[in-house]
Write a structure and sequence with these properties.
The structure holds two protein chains of two kinds. Chain A has strands spanning 5-7, 10-13, 19-24, 31-37, 43-50, 53-57, 65-68, 75-79, 88-95, 104-105, 109-113. By secondary structure, chain A is mainly β. Chain B is mostly beta strands. In chain B, 0% of the residues lie in helices and 54% in strands. Chain B has no helices and twelve strands. In chain B, the strands form three sheets. In chain B, strands 2, 5, 6, 10, 11 and 12 form a six-stranded mixed beta sheet that branches. In chain B, strand 10 (87-95) and strand 11 form a beta hairpin. Chain B starts with a strand and ends with a strand. Classes of the chains: A mainly beta, B mainly beta. Chains A and B meet through strand 4, strand 5, strand 9 and strand 10 of A and strand 5, strand 6, strand 10 and strand 11 of B.
């Protein structure tokens, strides 16, 4: 069964550094998402992406964040200048048809900002 | 704003006990409702979903959930839990016509003792 994959599984970075988290959604899916979960807190929506543009973003998704689908398969989340509070588990998700259908999640990337 | 509330943060049961996890949401319009499960070390997986029709929905591994519109609830049930059900359970909601943004509850950790 096709799966959403994410790399790396764990990323450690220094405060102020840029990080790029990578996701490969399921190949025929059309809608893409990033969520994050700070330890002990809820899974929070960051951004949704459809037809090569952002369709919705949360308040968390400020100018430090950006998303790209550079080559039709990868879906990346970039944090330009990481802060300590960006430490979290970041999940990518995709769904195939309508935006409200089932989302399939990747295993997550644990980001640790020191 | 939409929100989802899960009443139980940590539940401990013995094998063969019955399970009910509460989930309430706040949103006045049409919603799609989901329960996701995260087994230790694994990614979020869909247990079941409700879009329309029969308010009692059956999912994988013997789980079911009942949508009660008047109570804004979507409680998860299983008549007899197994040790392998030890996991974290998340209730989530998305509203029809939006970008697919999932709003999650805070999660319930279920520990089943053999």
């Amino acid at each position: 069964e096709p799966e959403v994959t994410q790399t790396p599984s764990h990323q450690v970075t220094q405060m102020g550094q840029e990080v790029i988290l990578r996701c490969v959604p399921i190949s025929n899916h059309l809608y893409f998402y990033w969520y994050r979960q700070i330890l002990g807190q809820k899974v929070e929506f960051l951004v949704s992406f459809y037809n090569n543009e952002i369709s919705e973003k949360s308040e968390i998704f400020d100018d430090q964040f950006s998303v790209e689908r550079p080559d039709g398969s990868n879906f990346t989340l970039k944090i330009r200048s990481t802060k300590l509070e960006d430490s979290a588990m970041y999940f990518c998700a995709s769904n195939p048809t309508t935006s409200t259908d089932t989302q399939y999640f990747g295993p997550g990337t644990r980001l640790t900002v020191l | 704003a939409q929100s989802v509330s899960q009443h139980n943060h940590h539940v401990i049961l013995s094998e063969a006990a019955s399970l009910e996890l509460g989930c309430n949401y706040s949103y006045g319009g049409t919603v799609n409702l989901f329960w996701y499960v995260q087994y230790p070390g694994q990614h979020l997986q869909l247990l079941l979903k409700y879009f329309s029709g029969d308010p009692l929905v059956k999912g994988i591994k013997g789980f079911e959930a009942e949508f009660i519109k008047s109570k804004f609830s979507f409680n998860l049930r299983k008549p007899s839990v197994q040790w392998s059900d030890t996991a974290e359970y998340f209730c989530a909601v998305t509203s029809s016509g939006n970008t697919g943004k999932l709003i999650f509850g805070q999660g319930t950790t279920l520990q089943v003792k053999p």
